[in-house]
């Protein structure tokens, strides 16, 4: 599965670029078989004005709870990686959001997903939105959830 790496919202005023290694991580956890479990992690990258460049998607750790229709992160390990990258990059590579898989061809967020993204956005110390990515079998779902106001849905640039 080759996912699309360039996404846009608000007539192109907001762009998101997923670097190839991020798409490879997504591809390696697609729930192809009927017993494949959900996977996920955090998204790290650069803020470039009103655009985002995603450079890393952390892989599930052995401490995460993985089920067929549910993925629960043990936040500490993912947060530790995020903090390490932030320190190594002099604060330029930062936490941008969350990703997880769904056993659907074209995924859409569950009520739990929407509530979690909003709760995370409310908790962010830097006040930035939380990017939520769902990895399906045929495509991604990409949405940026601010602390206040409506979430912004991104569409692939074909
Ligand atoms: Zn979900």
From TrEMBL:
GO terms for biological process: proteolysis. Keywords: Hydrolase, Metal-binding, Metalloprotease, Protease, Zinc. Residues 35-137 form the JAB domain. Transmembrane segments: none annotated. GO terms for molecular function: metal ion binding; metallopeptidase activity. Signal peptide: none annotated. InterPro entries: JAB_dom_prok. This is Mov34/MPN/PAD-1 family protein.
């Amino acid at each position: 599965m080759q996912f699309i790496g360039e996404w846009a919202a608000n007539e192109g005023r907001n762009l998101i670029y997923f670097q190839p290694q991020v798409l490879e991580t997504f591809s390696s956890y697609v729930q192809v078989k009927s017993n494949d479990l959900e996977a996920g992690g955090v998204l790290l990258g650069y803020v470039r004005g009103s655009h985002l460049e995603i450079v890393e998607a952390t892989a599930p750790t052995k401490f995460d709870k993985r089920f067929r229709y549910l993925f629960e992160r043990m936040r500490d390990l993912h947060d530790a990686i995020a903090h390490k990258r932030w320190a190594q990059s002099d604060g330029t590579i930062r936490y941008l959001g969350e990703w997880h898989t769904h056993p659907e061809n074209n995924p859409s967020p569950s009520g739990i997903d929407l509530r979690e993204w909003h709760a995370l956005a409310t908790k962010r110390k830097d006040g930035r939105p939380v990017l939520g990515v769902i990895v399906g079998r045929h495509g991604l779902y990409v949405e940026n959830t601010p602390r206040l106001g409506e979430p912004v849905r991104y569409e692939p640039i074909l």
